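In full, the data.
>
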Amino acid sequence: MRIKDQALWARTVLQITSLETMAALAGLRRAAVGAARAPARLAAAHVPMLDQRREKHVDVPHEAFEPYKTSTTGVASAGESRRAFQYVVATGLGVTTIAAAKVIVTNFLDTMSTSADVKAMAQLEVELDTIAEGKNVVLKWQGKPLFVRHRTAQEIATAVGTDIKDLKDAVNDPADSDRTKDPKWLVLLGICTHLGCVPISHAGEYGGYFCPCHGSHYDISGRIRKGPAPFNLEIPPYKFQGDNLLVVG
């Protein structure tokens, strides 16, 4: 095909394409105009149209939720009940803790206190009517020998009439009135103040007590009069309960 024929063919195709495009555009324009005029024609022909606007429906029955709701009074009472329960639990725990602490402290103090056997040894009760006048009994108090002597009137007079200047130990309760609470009863620890021996009753040069180990002589009031012992016999703590009971310790 020659060049002139090719150019003519190209112009022909271009013109056909342009005509088709113009026809398509005209069809679109007519469709748009027709769509715009359709509501007016439908209205004139009394044809009903669908309204796309949304309406508010107030006449639709709604679900009743009242049975599922808890009343305000119920909520308040439930809250008060819960708080009351918490108070009761807290109070119970507090009381239990205090009681447990008391038991622990009491048991701890009991372990530090004096045991029952030691308490039993701490005091000694002596029935005085079992000791005849002029007799001396030897008892045991806290592991130590104890002398309880029922003195006669002559022994009391001798003890009271002793001159303190004649005593070897004039410092540790030298007067007989300082060594007895009742002149008839003399209560002493039976331990020699020299080396801890146990003196013998109704012996020695003064009729009181005599330690044969090293020759210490004590008078009728337990005062050292002769020998190596430096001090008078010791007086334990004691008291009278009634007329017939002596409590030592």
The chain has a mean pLDDT of 80. DSSP finds five helices and ten strands in the chain.
